[in-house]
Amino acid sequence: MVVDSDIVEGMEQVYDMFDDAPGPWQSRTRRVRDCIGQLNDSLRSAFVAVYGREESIREAAARMGISFAAVAKRLSRARELIRECVERSTQNPQDKRDEEPKHARSQ
């Protein structure tokens, strides 16, 4: 998998936000980080642009060369997949730790 350096930098910024979580949130934030990492490139790049680099959806769309609606859809899908992944890992963290979000790699 080829990963753009901007994506890596943005992911680090997102991860840094989660690293600062206190006590009981640490395991949940670790799961969120793992789930973000499991997103496919197009979903992860939109997620990182908006939530990591704090670009507006319009800015992210212009930089990525896609429409505003496409970025908004990718963000929605990314949040949905992250939520599903975290919920699965929370239900049974030992068995589900390495599980990918449903359909994450097929997008």
Structure characterization notes:
- It is built from 6 helices and no strands.
- The protein has one domain (5-100): PhyR, sigma-like (SL) domain (Butyryl-CoA Dehydrogenase, subunit A, domain 3), CATH 1.20.140.
- It is mainly α and 107 residues long.
- 72% of the residues lie in helices and 0% in strands.
Write a concise keyword list for the protein shown above.
mainly alpha; 107 residues; 0% strand; 6 helices
In terms of structural class, how would the helical and strand content be classed? mainly alpha
Largest sheet: none
Low-confidence stretches: none
Helix content: over 70%
Assembly type of the chains comes to single chain
CATH class: Mainly Alpha
Distance between the termini: 15 Å
Architecture, CATH level 2?
Up-down Bundle
What name is given to the CATH topology? Butyryl-CoA Dehydrogenase, subunit A, domain 3
Concise summary:
The protein is 72% helix and 0% strand.
Secondary structure layout:
Layout: H1 5-19, H2 25-38, H3 41-52, H4 57-64, H5 68-91, H6 93-96
